[in-house]
User: Which sequence fits this backbone?
């Protein structure tokens, strides 16, 4: 069967746009095949604004995502495999979805050690998951007398970094 990940990315992207919010993707730039501007990378992650006004020729394919966007006023082509996507969320309130980070060897690194159960999974051709992507954490919800605090709406560059809310 094919991966559900590209379908979920497209569905959440449409949901974000339908709610008049700004879609952002978090991409692991270490993943093989990522072609994106490295000068905007923080902690091996790149946060990309995918709003229709920010990108041109967006293709949310089953194997790759590609588009053209301006970075520092310079038009650049961006291309990366769907598996490099760590999450999709709204800039305004951080709602979206985080995907498990797959284990893959980095250039010059040995293969990660696997427990016996993972070796069986690997022989069957199933991906290995390391759990929640590094650097992306859901903050604990602050509580007041009336329950959870409303989102602040602060996005990256306006005093607060992007946050992701884990959707189960």
Assistant:
């Amino acid at each position: 069967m094919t991966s559900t990940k590209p379908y979920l990315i497209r569905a959440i992207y449409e949901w974000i746009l339908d709610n008049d919010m700004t879609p952002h993707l978090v991409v692991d730039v270490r993943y093989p095949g990522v072609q994106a501007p490295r000068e905007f990378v923080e902690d091996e992650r790149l946060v990309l604004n995918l709003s229709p006004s920010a990108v041109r020729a967006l293709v949310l394919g089953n194997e790759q995502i590609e588009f053209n966007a301006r970075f520092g006023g310079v038009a650049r082509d961006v291309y990366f495999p769907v598996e490099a996507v760590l999450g999709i969320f709204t800039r305004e309130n951080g709602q979206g979805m985080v995907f498990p980070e797959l284990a893959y060897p980095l250039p010059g690194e040995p293969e990660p050690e696997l427990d016996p159960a993972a070796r069986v999974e690997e022989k069957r051709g199933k991906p290995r998951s390391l759990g929640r992507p590094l650097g992306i954490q859901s903050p604990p919800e602050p509580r007041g007398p009336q329950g959870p605090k409303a989102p602040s709406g602060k996005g990256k560059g306006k005093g607060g970094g992007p946050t992701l809310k884990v959707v189960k």
User: Anything to note?
Assistant: Confidence is low (pLDDT under 50) at residues 117-159. Strands lie at 23-28, 45-49, 55-60, 64-71, 74-81, 85-90, 96-98, 143-144, 147-148.
